[in-house]
Amino acid sequence: MVKKVVVLFLVLFTAAILLGRAENNIYITNDSYFSDDRIVVKIGNKEGFINKNGDLVGLEYDQAFRFNNGIAKVSQNGKFGYINKNGQIVIPIEYSYLGDFSEGLAPVQVNDKYGFINQSGRFIIQAKYNNAGVFQDGLAPVEVNGKWGAIDREGNLAIPFRYDNLSYFHDGYANFCSDGKYGIINNKGRVVVIPQYDSISEFNEGLAVVEDCGKFGYIDMNGKIVIPIIYESASNFIGGVAATKLNDKYGMIDKDGVQVVNHTYDLIHGVRWTSEIDMKLAVANNKWGFINKEGKEVIKLKYDFVYPYVEGLATVMLNRKWGCIDKLGNEVIPLKYDEVGYFSNGLLKVKIDKKYKFMDKKGNFLSLYFPTCKSNTGVTIVKD
Question: Contact 135/103 with Cβ under 8 angstroms?
Answer without folding.
Answer: yes
